[in-house]
Each structure stands twice: as C-alpha cells, then as structure tokens.
Design a protein that fits this description.
- The complex is a heterodimer of chains A (128) and B (161).
- With 128 residues, chain A is α/β, with parallel strands linked by helices.
- Chain A is built from five helices and five strands.
- Chain A has one domain: Response regulator (Rossmann fold, 3-Layer(aba) Sandwich), CATH 3.40.50.2300.
- A five-stranded parallel β-sheet of chain A has the order 2-1-3-4-5, sandwiched between helices.
- Chain A is globular.
- The N and C termini of chain A lie close together (8 Å).
- In chain B, helix 1 packs across helix 3 and helix 2 crosses helix 3.
- Chain B starts with 6 loop residues before the first strand and ends with a strand.
- Classes of the chains: A alpha/beta (128), B alpha+beta (161).
- The interface between A and B is medium-sized, with 29 and 31 residues.
Chain lengths: 128, 161
C-alpha cells in the first residue's frame, strides 16, 4: 500500500495522537497527518489538502462528525475519500446515520489498534 | 462495525453498578492496558485533585464523574500517550476527560434500549480538590472506587429520576 495522507478529526488532542499511533501500529505508512478539532476545521483542512483517509469523531463542538460527513460530500478534494468514524456513540441509530451520510466505517471507543486495522485497511484497499 | 453485547436495562438503576464497573474496567484495559483492582470506598477520600465530568441527556439523564489525585491523572495521561508526549497539564486534563467520555459511552452502549436516545456532552475537567459536589440530580446515584496502580479512582453516576 502506498503512503497515506490522513486527516484525524477529534476535539481531544490526546485522542488524535492515539488514533495516529494506532494507524502506525496497524502498519499504515503515513506520509502526512493533518489534524482538526471539529467538523468545520476539518472541512477547511479537506479543501486545502488532498488526503487519502479521514478518521472522525462524532461528538464535537462547533460542527459534529455527522454534519461534517454530510458536508464533506460536496468538497471537491474529498470525493472518494473514505471517512471512518471513531466515536463513543455506539448506538445503532448513530451507525446508520453515519453510514447513510457517507461514512465507510465505524469504530467504537475504546478501541484497540487491531480494531483500527480491521476497519481502516479494507477501506484503503478499496480506494486504491 | 464493532459488535458489542448489550445488557437489557435492569428495572432498578441501583443494579447498574456492576455494568458501570465493567464499563470502567474495559476502558482501562483497552486504552491503558491496565486492570483495576477493587477498593473499599471507606478507606479512600471522596474527591481528588482532578475531576472529569460528562453529562448525559435523554433517556438517561444525569452526570458521570471520574475523580482521582494528580499522580493518578498524570499516570493515566502517560499510559495513554507515552512519557515523552504527556508533558503538559492540558494533556492530563484532556486524557482524563477522554477516559470519562469513553466510560460514559461504554456504559450507555451496554444498556440495550438506549439506542440513540441518550446523548453525551463533551467532557469538562475540574482541577483542585477544595470543592463540594452538589448534583441537582434527584434520582439514583451510584459510585465505586477502583485502584489504578494503587491510586484510587472514584467513579460516580448521578441520575435524574
């Protein structure tokens, strides 16, 4: 798999670092990691930077992850870019909302690096 | 998609304590690779220097708090991030807030029937131990004390009726 440019969206800087570490532990060769602390910042990051993968929390201030997924569909740079949700929200309705909004995967916190690998690698392979 | 077994909501919230304790154990085991030990609540203070709070609204309404001393809070951040990264007080707050958030999420996800009907607030962390906690929740309350690396961690859930 080629090098991956990832955008990690979470209002917690600690979680952003843990997600990045989990991606590396999953064997994903990260070329560049962009960070955003809410959906609005993430939309700006997407417009300014081409990325191969987005990992996104749901509960965030300013703009939540579900609204971000809906709006990301209209960002030119984001067309075809897989978005995987990483969130404490584990209810069926949140999963359905996220997937129907365009997310390709859903990981529930707390998570292990193996779970990140299990959910992220297939969407990256499908993209390439 | 992660599949997690859920527990039918027991009719009496006082019977939720084992579910809360299981939720706490899972978060510490998965995120910090550490198993917590049971503790006698009477042998430990009810407050600490760091208190993280997450509000619950909807079908389950109230507040979950995770309280611990500064040594435990720093150790939690170090376990989550590594000693070379967990070097600021802000990261200690952030780490404890996320632990509280994950415990609250894990707990509500274990209660079948909460499907989308309970929302969580973003976490808040209070520092300093010289305060009194007055929840306006008028329903059930439950708390437990668990030992993390021999340091007490107090988890409290207060619910509106």
């Amino acid at each position: 798999m080629s090098k991956v440019r990832a955008l990690i969206v979470d209002d917690s800087s600690v979680m952003r670092k843990i997600v990045e570490r989990s991606l590396r532990q999953a064997g994903i060769d990260l070329e560049k990691v962009f960070e955003a602390s809410n959906g609005a910042e993430a939309l700006g990051a997407l417009r300014d930077n081409p990325v191969d993968l987005v990992l996104c929390d749901i509960n965030m201030p300013v703009m939540d992850g579900l609204e971000f997924v809906r709006q990301a569909a209209s960002v030119e740079n984001a067309k075809g870019v897989p978005i995987v949700m990483i969130t404490t929200e584990g209810s069926e309705s949140h999963v359905v909302q996220a997937l129907s909004s365009g997310a390709r995967g859903y990981i529930r916190k707390p998570f292990t690096p193996d779970q990140v690998k299990e959910h992220v690698l297939p969407v990256l392979e499908k993209k390439s | 998609m992660n599949a997690e077994p859920t527990t039918a909501i027991p009719p009496h919230p006082e019977s939720w304590l084992p579910i809360l304790e299981l939720s706490v154990q899972e978060v510490f085991e998965i995120m910090l690779a550490c198993r917590l030990e049971s503790a006698n609540p009477d042998e430990h203070p009810k407050t600490g220097e760091f208190t993280a709070m997450v509000g619950l609204a909807g079908a389950l309404c109230g507040i979950l708090t995770v309280c611990c001393g500064s040594e435990a809070a720093k150790l939690i951040a170090t376990r989550m991030l590594g000693p070379e990264i967990a070097n600021s007080e802000g990261q200690v707050w952030d780490a404890l807030g996320e632990i509280c958030n994950m415990i609250a999420g894990n707990f509500k996800n274990k209660l079948a029937g909460m499907d989308g009907r309970c929302m969580l607030s973003v976490p808040t962390v209070v520092t300093g131990g010289e305060y009194s906690f007055h929840s306006l929740a008028d329903g059930d309350a439950m708390s437990t004390v668990l030992l993390f690396e021999s340091q007490p961690v107090i988890i409290r859930l207060e619910l509106h009726s």
